[in-house]
């Protein structure tokens, strides 16, 4: 078996992540939906709304949103999520459930992006709510490898100048001082969530910020 999941298995994991996250979201109180996360100014509801969009947005819609965001990719992602999050929470959950089984991708992305999005943003939601959300080491390794090797969409996070060593599955990347821990924590580190990852990591973890 390779480091990254094969496409068929990857989609099975995506379906399970969408279903389990929808279950979690359905259990939240009104106050919990408004809880701030570490994703900029996004609340739980904004993160959840973002996770419904990739499989639903068309090329035409994406083009119109890019024009609206004046060509800024990150602004488009932010603004579309915030607008989508204005819907009732029941609609947000319904949209997430509606894409279980979907194989549609956002324009110019691969099947690895939905997995990466779900694993990382699922942790963003869980951490904001002080909930435990299990992550498969095999799936987290596949997502971490995607971050390590991705060229497009452009990686918004600089790679750590360190040797990353997973302690729960075989995976090592990089050079320099060693940082070790569960691959789920290394994935958070790789996606700019240093403060969230730090409690699970050993070694020269860079300071957040």
User: What's the number of extended β-strand segments?
Assistant: 4
Strand composition percent = 5-15%
Q: Average the pLDDT over all residues and give the rounded result.
A: 91
Uncertain ranges: none
Strand order in the largest sheet: 2-1-3-4
Overall shape:
globular
Task: Estimate percent helicity.
Answer: 40-55%
Distance between the termini: 36 Å
Alpha-beta content class: mainly alpha
Rg to the nearest angstrom? 17 Å
Write structural notes for this entry.
- This protein is mainly alpha-helical and 209 residues long.
- The chain is built from ten helices and four strands; from the N terminus they run ααααααααβββααβ.
- It has helices at residues 7-26, 30-33, 44-53, 59-68, 73-84, 89-98, 112-128, 137-149, 183-190, 194-197; strands at residues 163-166, 172-173, 178-181, 202-203.
- Strands 2-1-3-4 form a four-stranded mixed beta sheet.
- Strand 1 (163-166) and strand 2 form a beta hairpin.
- The longest helix is centred in the N-terminal third of the chain and has 20 residues, at 7-26.
- It starts with 6 loop residues before the first helix and ends in a 6-residue tail after the last strand.
- 33% of the residues are buried.
- The mean pLDDT is 91.
Question: How is this fold's topology laid out?
Answer:
Blueprint: H1 7-26, H2 30-33, H3 44-53, H4 59-68, H5 73-84, H6 89-98, H7 112-128, H8 137-149, E1 163-166, E2 172-173, E3 178-181, H9 183-190, H10 194-197, E4 202-203
Parallel strand pairs: 1-3
Antiparallel strand pairs: 1-2, 3-4
Helix pairs in contact: 1-6, 1-7, 3-5, 3-6, 3-7, 7-8, 8-9
């Amino acid at each position: 078996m390779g480091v990254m999941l094969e496409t068929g298995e990857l989609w099975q994991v995506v379906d399970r992540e969408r279903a389990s996250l929808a279950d979690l979201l359905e259990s939240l109180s009104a106050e919990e939906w408004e809880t701030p996360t570490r994703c900029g100014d996004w609340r739980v509801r904004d993160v959840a709304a973002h996770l419904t969009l990739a499989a639903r947005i068309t090329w035409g819609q994406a083009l119109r949103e890019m024009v609206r965001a004046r060509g800024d990719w990150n602004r488009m992602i932010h603004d579309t999520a915030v607008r989508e999050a204005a819907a009732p929470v029941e609609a947000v959950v319904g949209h997430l459930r509606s894409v279980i089984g979907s194989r549609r991708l956002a324009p110019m992305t691969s099947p690895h992006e939905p997995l990466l999005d779900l694993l990382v943003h699922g942790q963003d939601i869980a951490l904001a709510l002080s909930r435990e959300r299990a992550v498969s080491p095999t799936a987290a390794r596949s997502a971490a490898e995607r971050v390590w090797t991705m060229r497009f969409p452009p990686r918004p996070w600089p790679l750590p100048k360190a040797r990353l060593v997973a302690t729960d599955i075989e995976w090592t990347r990089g050079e320099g001082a060693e940082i070790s821990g569960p691959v789920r924590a290394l994935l958070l580190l790789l996606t700019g969530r240093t403060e969230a990852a730090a409690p699970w990591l050993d070694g020269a973890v860079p300071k957040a910020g």
